[in-house]
Fold these 3 entries.
Entry 1:
Amino acid sequence: MKFRQQQLDNGLQIVAECNPQAYTAAVCFMVRTGARDETPEVAGVSHFLEHMVFKGTPTRSADDVNQRFDDLGAEHNAWTTKEHTAYYAVMLPEYQEEIVELWADVMRPSLREEDFETEKQVIIEEIRMYEDQPPFCADERCEKNFFGSHPLGNSVLGSVETIRNLDVDTMRQYFRARYSPQNMIVAAAGKIDFDNLVGTLQRECGDWEPFEVQRQLVPPQPHDGFEVVQKATATQEYVIELATGPSATDPRRFAAYMLANLLGDGSGSRLYWELLHTGCAEQASLHYYEYDGVGVLGTWLCCEPEDAAENLRRIQEVYRQAEKEGFSEAELARAKMKFNSRMVLASERPQSRMASVGMNWLRRGEYRSVKQDLDEYNAVTLRDVAEVLAEFPLTRHNTIAIGPLADVQPPA
Amino acid sequence: MPVHCHTFQNGLTLVAEPMMWLESVAFTFLVPVGAVYDTAERSGLSNLTCEMALRGCGGRDSREFIQALEELGVEGGESVGVSHTNLRGATLAKNLGPALAIYADLLRDATLPELELEQGRHVAVQELRSVEDDPAHKVMMELRRSHYPQPWGQPHQGDMPGLTTITIDEIRAQYRSGYRPNGTILGVAGRFDWDPLRQTVDRLLGDWEATDRCEPKTGRLHSVQKHLHHQSNQTQIGIAFPSVPYSHPDYFQAWGAVGVLSDGSSSRLFREVREKRGLCYAVSASTRSLKRLGSVFGYAGTTSNRAQETLNVMLEEMQKLGDGIEIVELNRLKARMKSSLIMAQESSLARSGAIARDWYYLERVRTLDEIGRLVDELTPDSINAYLTDNRPSRFTVVTLGPHPLEIPREISSATT
């Protein structure tokens, strides 16, 4: 396992964890752009653009792109978040050069108007689909309530209205403003021929014009609150609570991940024993999300409507007790064992290492091996966890409940 | 790497594939307890039995059971399907023996605590209720119920009348007769040594007593059309038609044909429904197999005013498949399959499940090399000959949304 890194003259950074023992290779273009970089009138453009990237270049139609990926046997896809847009392929090592060439080409898309109008329908279908599925877009609404006018409150999908109103020229402008080689990296893992990777990227991307890209990093001022949205057709009640956590560059993030596991893992956590094992809820979990400049601790609950208020009270009580009494050494040891096991299992797939190597580089400009991460988690103490809880109390949060109820009593 | 197989005297089968390049090892127990064994009055019994079996075994209570697995770093899961309960886990290689010992207790010596029955029942009821909020899940559940002969279409979640009346005695009876070695398959994949593994399994489960129970008869597939009213933006479309089961000599011909229809971003359904017309975000089709019956299941979800067109295009593409496929389409599918076979070597958990399922369907395991060879042997002629004899027809169509759709006459008139 060897980490390699190089930067092209135009600023495009290339990072790879090369593992000659692996069977496959994974490669990813990551762009430091997402919903937080959008203005309200173009909400959803980063995600829409992610779809449009697959629609072809001056020398390839959308069909050509799809067929070429399939010809090369690549598992390829893309994702958009509030902060990043990423395009990846998992492949057999012998096709590395062709697939990197293909990605490099499609990363300079034509953004043709006809494709734009057809794909607009697909995006609207995607929004409609999420509106029909739990939590019926309440997660994005809760983020909006929590972050207020701060751009981290922006929706990744946008709304049907903003997508309908978007025109192709605005998307082209957005592309020209954000997809600078200085604002992108290429991350790879598995059986990668690094010299060939650099050579291919130099040849295919070396002439991309660099330009300055800024991200507004105003610190957010999260808001507390409690909102109930009635959706009469729903069967279950869904509740999301957001509280502040350490940011992506805060060394306390490891303790925050540990805290989320101790309190809200899907099995064996405090919420599990209180709510899931007892059958009080269908889902009760706590997650930690790291962003530039801020972190979020998010609680998710799904249960029968008549139990919602009581379950919220129970969650509050679990959090209060943790704030007051902390955890035991045995609980911490079991949580660490889960991290060790999960990380080793995940690291067996190059795709998972590619994502980790890329995100570490994009967020923090650093490489971290599996062992380095495991050492960090294994070094977390009960005091570290207690300090995170003291600094970022889970009992202060912004809550949204969506479901058949018109009113839900917030916990005292 | 060879695949090891051993059937113990009590009928338990151990199938194991070494993947010595991994640090992990994974196991999957397929226990012959599934929705197909539930009576119509006690629909959901197998699922609730599984939930209760996880609440303590071998002298451990629920908490001790889960904590013991956590201490071994076992990343586990369980699910109840139509014919089996699937209990699985992955961990570091050195922990395999102790992890299997805990699962042996679960299989043979579950406490099934009466005091926790109401909690377990609540868990099962929550799972059933959550389906009501998931329209895609709901339409596919109804599609299975409509297309498969009973009891093979019965959902594992059961129904409210069943779940609310099941007693602890019924759960205990289901456990005693269903959790049995004859018919149970243990798949292991990853880093392990065969001889010690076989000895461990023999020690833990070799004297587990067989019971007398058989899988229900399969019956015939149905072809029906149905609409479920649901207040939503989108209409969900589920389509099924008969194919051949996994054990059939022509299975890979059928698989190849469906791959052309729906595998990859250049496949016909993705291209015609999503890329060309922008009708939906999600559209797919794949082969599904019971032991003796095979089908193709298709799905799409789309805004209601575009649902009719989506259904028409999907049915048209499915029927058009009967006219044959092209060599370029097959070559693309082969390239994708070649990659996915190599990728399969990177997940011990997925592989342990796949080899256990192979044994259920075939009573042997197809190695990745054998699958690769079978795929290589496919030709447009062989697939087209299959399609000539097995044109997609006798469609079951289930839709869910605010308005019913019109089923083309040639399809609705072919109903049986």
Entry 2:
Amino acid sequence: MNIYVLLKRTFDTEEKIAVNGGAIADDGAEYIINPYDEYAVEEAINLRDAHGGEVTVVTIGEEDAEKQLRTALAMGADKAVLINTEDDLEEGDQFTTVKILEAFFEGKEADIILAGNVAIDEASGQVGPRLAERLDIACVTTITKIEVDGTTVNIERDVEGDVEKVETSLPLLVTCQQGLNEPRYPSLPGIMKAKKKPLEELEIDDLDLEEDDVEAKTTTMEIFLPPAKEAGKVLEGEVDDQVKELVSLLKTEAKVL
Amino acid sequence: MSKKVLVIGESREGSLRNVTFEAIAAANLVSDGGEVVGVLCGDGDLKGMAQEMVYYGAARVITVSNPELKTYTSDGYAQAVQQVIDDESPEGIIMGHTAIGKDLTPKLASRLESGLISDATEVVVEGGDIVFTRPIYSGKAFEKKKITDGLIFATIRPNNIPSLNRDDSLTGAVSEKEVQISNIRTIIKEVLKKSSDGVDLSEAKVIVAGGRGVKSAEGFEPLEKLAEALGGTVGASRGACDAGYCDYSLQIGQTGKVVTPDLYIACGISGAIQHLAGMSNSKVIVAVNKDPEANIFNVADYGIVGDLFDVIPKLTEEIKQMKVNA
């Protein structure tokens, strides 16, 4: 199988967020593979091990994203592609990303493309379904289980807590939800091997795209932090009294009962 | 400039979801005195629900009834809505940021080669621009965004934009649209209902959430009883899910669901950053934890330092008592 994974480099989930000069401050931040994309990498490796073929991880970003690509290679992916937009793009959105990916996938004959259900930074969840539409292949979002048998694919997906069982066929794009698998940690031999695995770097010119072709359809006007939440009232006294006081406060002060 | 704005309605088990009414309110703002047109897909008679959309502010509603639309599939719904868009040429589209909204709107935006602003929590008009506010980094920060080119297309997060008041004196035409649907590439074999009460976490007004302090799957029982007494639903922290006390579908946090209920009761949850990201924008937060130093108390409006297995059943009784007295 010709398997692709769409991967995004994101802030670690334990990072606190600060805004500096109208942008998210990134000095000293730890970066990880977007956790949902990590499920995609793990599942791609499992599919390849079961059905043969090759796993290629693709990211769009800057030079620094090489680290996350190497991590995916260390987990067991075969090849990586970095589409480096550092010199060409100032501001992109999901339209931009998908235009670039659409050009990248031209002529690739992917059997399956796996992506995260959402990225934990911008969290639009648009790239997977948008790309499937451009490539005119079926798309199943928020999957928690996948079985491939020939070209038939049986999937379970999370729909707001319910489980929907879906049958579809290759070629296919899926977006991965928590519960799909437990991503492995890269092993030491895996890390050594990853250093020698192919990592191709492309720019948008290599995909026959001009800046105008990928111009964003949206713009960010402002980034700000939510108002700091002040610590509230910790109740005192016997538990019975605290409970009574709480119910009374919820009713009269907070007015939520 | 006044615009024609479509609202893609969504129903569950025969009634419209609240977020549809909230989307009408958002569309009303985006339309700037133009026309808000509801669209409702399904199978069978959709007139009653279409009428409800009118009472909540839609000027008219287009229903699309087809056996292929009985259950949601992205291919089926994308084709149906696309055909309505072709007829109507709207300048805006608004839908709820629900499982269906998240699945359908990127496909439509891709077909239309348009922008799409997902998961907006606020819409305002600022100097002629329609400005959407949306959380990023799971609510650790927010951004204001606008569409720079063409169609104003957005999904709105449930429970954030107030709907207009229902007014059954409002009138509006309900028309039917016939559509052609072919080549649905996914077949829904079965749906296993997990959520017993049918209230999705993202739309719940009250959430009672448990963390590691709940100690076991059985430990969730008192939380479920409290949720039931409050007409709410149960959620969990990553700690509780990782420990196997409950299903991942209940997880609230930066990985998992981001929720903004009116009342969030955190039980035995320490308050890791990754959890706070998913719930700290709730309107009122109550924390119950044995550890007075727990981080969760820093975001809680009201805190009780104590054993949840002592506090929660008493709280449940007190709530029930209050309801009896009311």
Entry 3:
Amino acid sequence: MNPVVRTLLSRVGGYVGACLLVVFFALPLLWLVLTPFTPNPTYRASLSGVTLDNFRALVDNPQVWPSIRNSLVLAGGSALLVVALAALAAYALSRVRVPGRDQLLYALLLLSSIVTGTAAMVPLFLMLFQLGLIDRQVGVVLVLTGGLLPAAVFMLKDFVDSVPRSYEESARVFGAKPNQVLRHVVLPVIRPGMATVGVWALVQVWGNFLVPYVLLANPSKQPAAVVMYTFYDAGGQPDFALISTFALVYSVPVVLLYLVVNRRYGFAFQGGIKG
Amino acid sequence: MPSTSPAAERDVAGLGRARALGFVAPALVVIGVFLVFPAVWTLYLGLLDYSLTGAGAQAPTFVGLGNYTEALGDPAFTRSLGLTLVYVGGSAVLGQNVLGFALAWRLRGAGKVVRSGLTVLVLLAWILPGSVVAFLWQALLDRRGGTLNALLGTTDQAWVLDHPMWVIVVFNIWRGTAFSMLLYTAALSSVPRSHLEVARMSGASGWQQLRDVVLPTVRRHVLTNTLLITLWTFNDFSPYLLTGGGPNGASEILPVYVYREAIIGGHLGYGSAISLLLLLANLVIAVFYLRVLRGRTEAT
């Protein structure tokens, strides 16, 4: 084949391929971007004018804000618990030499990637049932915290390891007590690491469907991820105005947090409990 | 306390053993109760005939390996196992892997607009909450008003009902390719440009460069990536939000099977037995993954 034709063909092929990929990845997203603003929304993604009327459905629906609040409670509660427990553990593991520490950390990390919400659905359900924690948000928070903690300790220990010990040493030379060292020296230094881990945990829980779906029965306790699937009218037809605006409001924080964390720390954001 | 003693050197913060233990204990307790215990308990539960309702609810009886033989004899289980292999193999091992690599490879030389545009789209598919993307795909594929039917001019083409496995495989490729793309982009940037240059000078085609220069360098990354996405896809529950495992179990992968049997059906003993199989499969993948990682750190 003529080399010029060949180069031309491969270039055209490259463009066509790129276009197809753009279409493939963009097509499902169109609905999320267009539908909240289109009058008379349906399944079909289209924009036949711009309106904010759909957001009235969001404001009027009595389930919307409780479910967002539930998401905040679950995600915020888990993130706080994960950060607090992981920071304490990571600091102690970094500064005090315990025999078998690295093996312990690896074993825990291994466990947390094995014991996922999917694989451990049955024992978790039964355990919370017998503890009387089923249908209680604290149960969901504890289960999710347990799943996220090993990775969080791992990440934070890396962070603490990189903080020079001389900070603490000099503070102690000046007569600071261990508590003061912790509060005034250590905490400010590892705060960025705690923030990263906190955001990571927040996003993980915010998007989690399975764990609250299985462990919570009462709709008034369900987070946004689950409640989204209840916005159907009596005929089984989805309430498009409500779902589209709700999906947008529910997604935006995740995208924003991702952008913030990604800009500061680069990728390696996902992982841990999935599903 | 003199700060020069060896004990203080090991413990710069002056925490002391006891307090250090106190710091670690809360995390260990939560992990122990909500992560380790359920996994271990599954071992025992799987040996019981234990139901939420009926006779098994009053007094669980010990049935030994009965649940496992029952599973192997249940055509729904063996079919679910097969569907899971198709789902993981098709969407993760092949789909995400190949598409992620292709994207990373082609986007290196692409213009800035194409590269950043496509990257944003691929990343969005990955970071949006699972419930949202599942509904987006429902809207895309809907039988009457879906965007896909409107674009193709097909009417009443029920994609989800007619081709449920294709739908969840393509969906998961769309959903998860970002991770492979990011990982391979990082891996490809470690391939020395001069090696590619030399290969090109000596007349190697793009394909030959890929095979002889790039693939040997990133082989370990391929293995790492494949294991991770396999683990995640194997534990993925989101197909349930798209197809509900239906129609008639035609897309019922193992996570959905366990959910239906144990949580909906209340067969907790039987569900635990299947859960243990899932845990063991996860363990095999994860141990393999750690071995690969260790091999890499020793090699460098």
